[in-house]
């Protein structure tokens, strides 16, 4: 269990020096207990106190890194059981299974194409999970080597055969793959491999009690970069195990203080998507899946984006001037907020009008048009400043701007402040194509 603020305070120097950016040692102790500061912020804490304070300073779930370079992924380092209390930080790694009995080259080519664009952002599936389905060490090594050469994304090497894993690591260790898995039968040798190659290690038990005992053995053997697989392949049991692991970790039960993972079992791609969604929503930080169909993965990637977004901060696009189509000096100019849902709906409808246009995205702290107007963040004087700062008069040969119909009330102020003619557009973005054709069509 973690130390309380009062317990931490008793171990501090009590100088109230303020060098930790907090006014008193008691304030620092309370912040440390809540995970809002780090122990190294105190310059005067003794070595003896540091040792005792490690349990309070360390996150309840250890951070584990998989991969190298651009596609390095971190999991763990989480502090919450309920997303609305704060937020979740390190997104679940999605791994697609590739068996060494498959056409590995073709599977990796298809894997590399798993890219998705949503609300102006590009997402990819994170990892290839190479499975030693053949039981042949050389064939497994060859499949892993193909994956290493074909993709730069993360790797998960799946074999309980220590010799096969050792051969695979000859060609993959530099990529820092996740080694899967240490079991009761092989954990000593798997730990040796993981320590030698500096790779994270998955621990797969048979139920929570067995998994806890196995984790303790692995830690005692000297390796702590772990990912926990409780071993169940039945969805309801896996769900229960993942939840129990997270709750225990946040209660500072150190045995379970590592990221957890799950392996899907459903054969139908959409059912497998649902299964993975359940696991992701209940704290699995790495999921190994079979399907590589885009249609099945798009909803899962979208859900991951929402799950790991700060619920207290709306998703927003960068404020500024955007071009839709091949704009020219006669192109109309629309204005909206930088709330991503609002902006991309407007952008989609403007694109659908087939008339190249400019869109001004006003910084409203990521809130919608009517909400921003009510909060005085989407007003005539603010929009007028954007027109000037963006140099619109140099880009178009007219002085006309289209505002959302729901805030027609700002038109007078905007005309006074900017000198531009204000055209009141439709109340709903769905009306933009018809509106644009009538106003700007040739």
Describe this structure in words.
With 442 residues, the protein is α/β, with parallel strands linked by helices. The chain folds into 3 domains: 5-57, 3-methyladenine DNA Glycosylase II, Chain A, domain 3; 64-307, TIM Barrel (Alpha-Beta Barrel), CATH 3.20.20; 320-440, Rossmann fold (3-Layer(aba) Sandwich), CATH 3.40.50. The chain has 16 helices and 17 strands. The protein has an 8-stranded parallel beta sheet. The chain is globular and about 75 Å long. The N and C termini lie far apart (71 Å).
The general outline is globular
How is the biggest beta sheet arranged? 8 strands, parallel
Share in β-strands: 15-25%
The percent range for helix content is 25-40%
- Strand arrangement, major sheet: 10-9-8-7-6-3-12-11
The average pLDDT is 93
User: Can you tell me the CATH topology of the largest domain?
Assistant: TIM Barrel
Distance between the termini: 71 Å
- Give the second-level CATH assignment, the architecture of the largest domain: Alpha-Beta Barrel
Count of individual beta strands: 17
- In DSSP terms, counting alpha (H) and pi (I) runs of 4 or more, how many helices? 16
What's the CATH H-level homologous superfamily of the largest domain?
Dihydropteroate synthase-like
Oligomer: single chain
């Amino acid at each position: 269990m973690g130390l309380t603020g009062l317990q931490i305070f008793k171990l501090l120097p009590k100088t109230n020096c303020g060098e930790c950016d907090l006014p008193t040692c008691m304030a620092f102790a309370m912040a440390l207990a809540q995970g809002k500061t780090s122990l190294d912020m105190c310059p005067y804490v003794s070595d003896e106190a540091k040792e005792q304070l490690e349990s309070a300073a360390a996150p309840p779930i250890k951070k584990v890194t998989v991969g190298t370079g651009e596609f390095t992924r971190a999991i763990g380092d989480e502090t919450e059981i309920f997303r609305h209390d704060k937020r979740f930080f390190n997104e679940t790694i999605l791994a697609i299974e590739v068996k060494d009995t498959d056409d590995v080259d073709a599977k990796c080519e298809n894997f590399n194409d798993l890219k998705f664009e949503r609300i102006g952002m590009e997402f990819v599936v994170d990892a290839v999970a190479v499975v030693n389905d053949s039981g042949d060490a050389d064939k497994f090594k060859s499949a892993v080597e193909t994956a290493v050469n074909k993709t730069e994304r993360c790797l998960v090497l799946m074999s309980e055969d220590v010799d096969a894993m050792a051969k695979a690591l000859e060609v993959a260790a530099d990529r820092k793959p996740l080694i899967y898995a240490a079991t009761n039968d092989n954990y000593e040798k798997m730990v040796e491999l993981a320590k030698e190659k500096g790779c994270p290690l998955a621990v797969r038990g048979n139920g929570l009690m067995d998994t806890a005992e196995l984790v303790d053995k692995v830690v005692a053997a000297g390796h702590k970069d772990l990912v926990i697989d409780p071993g169940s392949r039945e969805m309801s049991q896996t769900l229960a195990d993942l939840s129990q692991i997270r709750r225990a970790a946040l209660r500072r039960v150190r045995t379970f203080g590592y990221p957890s993972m799950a392996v899907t079992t459903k054969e139908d791609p959409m059912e497998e998507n649902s299964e993975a969604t359940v696991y992701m929503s209940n704290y699995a930080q790495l999921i190994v899946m079979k399907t590589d169909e885009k249609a099945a993965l798009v909803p899962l990637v979208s859900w991951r984006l929402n799950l790991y977004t700060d619920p207290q901060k709306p998703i927003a696009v960068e404020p500024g001037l955007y071009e839709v189509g091949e704009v020219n000096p006669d192109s109309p100019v629309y204005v909206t907020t930088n709330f991503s849902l609002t902006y991309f709906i407007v952008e989609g409808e403007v694109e659908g009008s087939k008339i190249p246009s400019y869109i001004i995205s006003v910084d409203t702290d990521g809130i919608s048009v009517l909400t921003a107007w009510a909060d005085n963040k989407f007003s005539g004087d603010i929009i007028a400043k954007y027109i000037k700062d963006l140099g619109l008069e140099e880009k178009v040969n007219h002085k006309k701007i289209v505002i959302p119909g729901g805030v027609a009330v700002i038109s007078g102020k905007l005309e006074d402040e900017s000198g531009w003619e204000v055209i009141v557009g439709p109340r709903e973005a769905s009306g933009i194509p018809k509106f644009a054709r009538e106003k700007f069509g040739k």
